[in-house]
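Example pasted here:
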Amino acid sequence: MTFTASQIAEQLRGEVLGDGTVELTGFASAELARPGDLTFAEKESYFAAAEQSQATAILVAGEFTSAKKVLIRVPNARVAVARLLPLFFPPESHTPGIHASAVIAASAQIDSAAHIGPNCVVGARVRMGARSVLMGGNHIGRDCQIGDDVCLFPNVVIYAKCQVGHRVRIHAGTVIGSDGYGYVFDEGHHRKMLQVGNVIIQDDVEIGANTAIDRGALGATLIGQGTKIDNLVHIAHNVVMGRHCLVMGQVGFAGSTHLGDYCVIASQSGIAGHLKIGHQATVGAKSGVMRDIPDKGTVLGMPAAPDKQAKRQMIALQQLPELIRRTRELEKQVAELLAKVGG
């Protein structure tokens, strides 16, 4: 698609510095840009590279000027990029209809605008909203509810009775509603505790590939509105996750932990069960969280501690080899003095 610089600026509520009639046919990073492309720069070093590139125009935030390129100035360049990319790279469209290889229960209610791809299975009494997409190989268990504009990438599985809100995207290989890890020790063996709850995913959630979200033991495991979950995350039974949280890859949550809104959990962290993580809390990468975190608290480390305390501990640990060396030297000097006194 082709847009003028003025059209792009109008779309972003920005301003053009230079020829607003210049046509832009694509979007690329500075090192890959070609004539006709729009690129972007957030700071001086990136701007210098963008000016030397073949791009026709540069999207900027701040007081940049250029004698070489048309500039489109916006309040926040990265936010502007997020809004622009769907214009230059529109998402794949899916024709409404049901593939001949799909198996659909007679009692399922599928909106006429939905798309069901090859080798999908849709169970009894499933309800699926307008423009929602099952790309292929998906299994939707009985009594599930799927809202409007949902996209399930290939091989996503949703177990029975789960609920998915509107505008949710779930990437390939993810499993929603598998049994929570619940056992009791009885007469010498581990007896399975049936997991009879479900998973509720609210509107505007995105879930990465190969993630597993377990159903509640009795109630629901809940993923709040607008939350974004990365690949390879495990969320155990009865976890309640607030709105607009960010969860990075390879994070694990034990059962019944509650997260507030706008939490950030960095990669490879583990969160113990039955904890309360406050609103706007942040967990640093590779942390082991064993205690509650207050609102706006930041923790890191193993076990996780408040960030300032954890950083002091890390610095002290780095100084430990030198402290050991000095201690040994002092012990040697004391031993020599004692030897002299004893002599």
Summary: The radius of gyration is 27 Å.
